[in-house]
Structures are given as structure tokens and as C-alpha cells.
Amino acid sequence: MALAPLLLPLVALVLSSTACQNPKPSYTDSAAVLAGDTTQHVLLAEDRALVLHARELDRADSLEAARSEYEQAAQKIPQLSDWLYLRAAGVTSDSLARAAYYGKLRTDVARD
Predict the structure, then answer these.
(1) CB 50 within 8 A of CB 76
(2) Cβ atoms of 50 and 71 closer than 8 Å
(3) What is the torsion angle, in degrees rounded to the nearest 10, for the CA atoms of residue 85, residue 49, residue 41 and residue 78?
(4) CA atoms in the 13 A half-sphere facing the CB of 110
(5) Do 25 and 58 form a contact (C-beta atoms < 8 A)?
(6) In contact, 62 and 53? CB cutoff 8 Å
(7) Are the beta carbons of 64 and 43 closer than 8 angstroms?
(8) What is the rounded distance in angstroms from the CA atom of residue 63 to the CA atom of residue 57?
(9) Within the chain, what is the greatest distance between any pair of CA atoms?
(10) What is the pLDDT of residues 1-60, one digit of tens each?
(11) Would the CA dihedral through 73, 78, 82, 83 be positive or negative?
(12) Rounded to whole angstroms, what are the CA distances from 89 to 9, 24, 38, 47, 82?
């Protein structure tokens, strides 16, 4: 009985320190950290690369190439197509081609 007040804090300390330890990292976790990418992604890597490449072309003022990449990405990724068609329209100098991109928008938010 006299040891119970001494053992209870010791047991609590052992349990709390065990619970606070990080799990051992897996190989995929380590590879992601080494690559500098620890974000959970909802897109396939090739689709993400296509969008990023289009953005790089856009920033480099390679507007025709960026337009083509945005359009290709919009066709491959329907959940982002409105945003991608708006990006394509934004780098298009021809007003008829821009209007065609605006005609492909599916949501009211994108049309406004």
C-alpha cells in the first residue's frame, strides 16, 4: 500500500512517454521527405506535373505552350477543368478562342 503513491506517477510517466513517441517512418515517408514533398495529394503525379508545367510555361511567358498544356490538363482532370480553362483563356490572345474556353466552363462560379 505504501508503494502505490510512488508507482502510480511512474506508471503514468511510462505510459505517456510511450504514447507520445513518433511511429517509425516508412520507406515512402522517407522518400517523400528527401524529395521535399510531404503534402498529401489528390491528383496523380503525372497530372500534377502537367499542371505545374503549364504554370511554369505561363510564368515564362510561353503563352501558346502554356495554353496547350492548360487545355490538355483540363481534358485529363475534369474536377479542375473550369480553373484550367480559365487559365487557358487568360493566356489566349485571340478573343474567339477565349470565348470558346469560356463556353466550356461548367460551374456558375467560374462563369461569373
Answers:
(1) yes
(2) no
(3) 30
(4) 18
(5) no
(6) no
(7) no
(8) 7
(9) 88
(10) 566 777 777 777 776 666 566 666 555 566 666 666 666 667 888 999 999 999 999 999
(11) negative
(12) 66, 47, 32, 20, 10
In the chain, the amino acid numbered 58 is D
Cell numbers standing for residue 90: 487568360
Q: Grid coordinates representing 34? A: 528527401
Nine-digit cell at 75? Answer: 481534358
Nearest to 75 by CA among 54, 90, 95, 99: 54
79 to each of 58, 99, 111, how far by Cα in Å? Answer: 21, 21, 15
Which cell goes with 51? 499542371
DSSP, collapsed to helix, strand or coil, labels residue 7 as helix
